[in-house]
Known about the structure:
- By secondary structure, the protein is of the alpha+beta class.
- It has 2 domains: about 1-175 and about 270-315, Vaccinia Virus protein VP39 (Rossmann fold); about 190-260 and about 330-375, no CATH class.
- It has 11 helices and 15 strands.
- Strands 3-2-1-4-5-7-6-13-14-12 form a 10-stranded mixed β-sheet, with helices on both faces. A 5-stranded antiparallel β-sheet has the order 9-8-10-11-15.
- The longest helix has 13 residues, at about 345-355.
- It is an enzyme of class 2 (transferase).
- InterPro entries: C5-Methyltransferase, C5_DNA_meth_AS, C5_MeTfrase, SAM-dependent_MTases_sf.
- It catalyses: a 2'-deoxycytidine in DNA + S-adenosyl-L-methionine = a 5-methyl-2'-deoxycytidine in DNA + S-adenosyl-L-homocysteine + H(+).
- Its EC number is 2.1.1.37.
Amino acid sequence: MKTASLFTGIGGLELGLARAGHGALLTCEVWEPARAVLRTRFADVPSHDDVTTLEHLPDDTELLTAGFPCQDLSQAGRTLGIGGSRSGLVGHVFRLLDRRPVPVVVLENVSFMLSLDQGAAMNHLARAFEERGYRWAYRTLNSQAFLHQRRERVFFVATRNDLDPADVLFDGDTPMPELKTNLRSHAHGFYWTEGTRGLGWAPDAVPTLKNGSTVGIPSPPAILKTDGTIVKPDLRDAERLQGFPADWTKPAEEVGRSSLRWSLVGNAVSVPVAGWLGERLATPHPHDPARDLAWPSGRKSWPRAARFDGTERYAVDIGALPVFLEREPLEQFLRYPGTPLSVRGTAGFLSRAEASSLRFAPGFLDAVRRHLSLQRGDAGPALAA
Length: 385
């Protein structure tokens, strides 16, 4: 399909869709570091700089995508809801659809949207599409189906042609393989900036890559390696953990600080998830109605997957992993050395962790203490035999 993209970012959706055979007609992105990436990586695609001044979509648009801003919806953000100044920009999607209805629309956002304000954001989106004659379906998808990153996002597909959005999204349901924590056999990712209420602990994976601060202070996760050292991944590996080639965001350095690249990567759509979606758009698989459940009433959040068939809404019983691809261990995947977690960062995390009531994997805090001693220069081998 011929695609127009709003809130394009660095083109994760577009790159994945292109790998599945879909072609971009237009990108629209306001942040200059992201625009610098698009100018290089999608040099032949016309680009607009501000959705609020975009008057219309290309006449031959068949698919409209919008990874609209999540700052007002995210648990890590301001949680102002769909009416916040940033996330409220999704209203321009409907302004443009009212000028030219597009057969297929794909939206992407954080899974917290399902519960924020008891699902008010989802209800707003669903009603807006229903009023315009669209069927819709959405599903929470986890990037860990394809990559060493645990990252859940909601993908919302709306159609007003013969394509049933349920046939696009509800293909494949794979359980997460059991991987028990073993500090000697594989690496573990965690948030070193946490330690009081949560950890983001991820065996053989990293927790969700974050966008960092708005002024470019990065917030990468930490990785405890099997030798007991703790590193922050190299930015190029962070790009790869989102499915991009290494140095995909390098062009952003032409217009801003290199640290802003972390925000670009943290905001992006995981490329292989977009690729899977693109393949399903091209070759849909019939939805099994046995997965349908009665629409829940009185809930404080929306289901993790659901659909609207033009008449009725249904919850859908399906997980977040359509597949689980075979992969090398995280420690072998990492191509670049990474940066050892600093004395200050390690000590701060350790003090929070020791004062908290969290339960940690056996040996984890000992490994953190050894790493801290190594960084201070007052210890022997990082991991005792």
